[in-house]
Amino acid sequence: MTGLLAGLDLGTSSAKLVVLDPDGTLVAEAEQAYPTHTAAGGVVEQRPEDWWDATVSVLQRSGVAARIGALGLTGQMQDLVPVAARRATRRAILYSDTRAGSQHQRLRVAVPDWEYRTGNHQDVTNVAAKVAWLAEHEPQALTRAQHLLLGPGAFVAHRAGAEAACDVTTASTTGLLDVGERDWLNDAVAAAGALADQLPRLTGQVAGDAVVGHVGADAARETGLAVGTPLVLAMGDAVSTTAGLIGTDPGEAYLYLGTTGWVAAITPARDCAPSPIHSLVMPGWEERLRIGAVQSAGSAAAWALRTFLPGTSFAEAEERVAPRLPAVADRPLCLPGLAGERTPVRDGDLRAAFVGAQETTGPEDLYLAVLTGVAMGLRHAAVEMGATQARLPLVGGASGSAVWRQVLADVFGATVVVAAAASAPGAVHAAREAAEATGLVHALRPVFETGVQETTPPSPTHELLREQLDVHRRLYDALKPTFDDLAEHRHLSTRGGPAA
């Protein structure tokens, strides 16, 4: 088989397409945004037809759709997409939708060993609870559905002509996968009100099973792809992005800093109790991608900039705070979770806090405290997952901050590296999976194997910050009663009751 390689990443806000030669040269790329619909009560939805329309748009605009030899698809995970006759029966309920709180609580009672069997903590965003909500509030949408798809990559592939499928990575985010049995968790499926035959086929079980179908005649007319083009369901976006950045070898890890932040590491599969560290199954079941996320990273830094250095641009702030980097003694400890926390504790009631401010503490120190607090939260997660490498790749919008890179290097005691180019790594890896699943020879490599732009080693400040890590970790537990009390006051206040 010959032809170009294409990868499509259907994220939360847009579809990103990359088309490459087998040697890795970029031939074409395109992006198309689509809207998200939100409403009171935690409703977060998207129209699956918008995903399809975006796919058609980027393929047509690439100008080379007819030359594509295989298309790999990845995207956001943990969605609920009920489908009949290759069309959605309603809007997709997204991973961040929180409406199913009462259904979630009932499932916890109905399946007592739920978290142990799924290998993860389950919160109100899990797909099983979404299915239960649908069964209770929109039963016709559920009963009409031939299949329950779990992400936009699977939907677009199915719409184009593929079978109903779900990669094991996405499945492991849903609360519906029994990681011990390597199959759907029938107890949770039944308790949620679905039928076992509505769940899609799992891919990623064995090598070569990711080809889920081929482009049909109708889809070919719309997209410009050739009839019969193989459709490959790549790993969900978290693993595809990781593989596109650092590969899939156990022991590798990287940091992401955007609005939120996380440290992700590939580890051998092993039995472990559910924890704030999320564990995603990788193809073949022999490895896991473990992710420790902090709720507020770039968002906390933006808040600190507005609050402590008002009227200051990002570039001006960098110049202003850099001389204060060695002044660790004047920098208070900070918990940066402005809206709850996910790692090292999972607590929706936690809020940001500063401990240890003194007379010599200035606004620059408070700003740096927030950056340091985010870095320490990520470091706690890395310790729990056993990620202790000396070279730490960094991606995300905040990777452009030289100050934050230095803080991370000092907190982790590792050299932080930034790639020269890290555009759409998830889509690039989806293209690589498409090549490997269909036997196409290729030379695609992870981003951090092909070049590094910036290198930031630890400074002498590393030793001072290392001594503070244990103290910082204890703050989460020490302040929990205070956060719980404040949450109760907020709850009473919003209900108009007494806050006494």
Short description:
This protein has 500 residues and is of the alpha+beta class.
Write up this protein.
Helix content is 37%, strand content 22%. Helix 13 (363-385) crosses helix 14. Helix 14 (402-412) links the parallel strand 23 and strand 24 (415-419). 50% of the residues are buried. The chain has two domains: 4-234, 2-Layer Sandwich (Nucleotidyltransferase, domain 5), CATH 3.30.420.40; 247-419 and 460-500, Nucleotidyltransferase, domain 5. It is an alpha+beta fold and 500 residues long. The strands form seven sheets. Strands 19-20-18-17-23-24-25 form a seven-stranded mixed beta sheet, sandwiched between helices. The chain has a six-stranded mixed beta sheet with strand order 3-2-1-6-16-15, with helices on both faces. Strands 4-5-9 form a three-stranded antiparallel beta sheet. The protein starts with a strand and ends in a 5-residue tail after the last helix. Pfam families: FGGY_C, FGGY_N.
Number of helices: 17
| DSSP summary, beta strand count | 25
CATH class of the largest domain: Alpha Beta
**Fourth-tier CATH superfamily name of the largest domain:** ATPase, nucleotide binding domain
Return the CATH topology of the largest domain. Answer: Nucleotidyltransferase, domain 5
Structural class given helices, strands, pairing? Answer: alpha+beta
User: Segments where pLDDT lies below 50 for 5+ residues?
Assistant: none
* CATH-level-2 architecture of the largest domain: 2-Layer Sandwich
* Computed CA radius of gyration, to the nearest angstrom: 23 Å
The percentage of residues in β strands lies in 15-25%
Task: Look at the structure and give the mean pLDDT.
Answer: 93
Shape: globular
Counting structural domains, the number is 2
Largest sheet: 7 strands, mixed
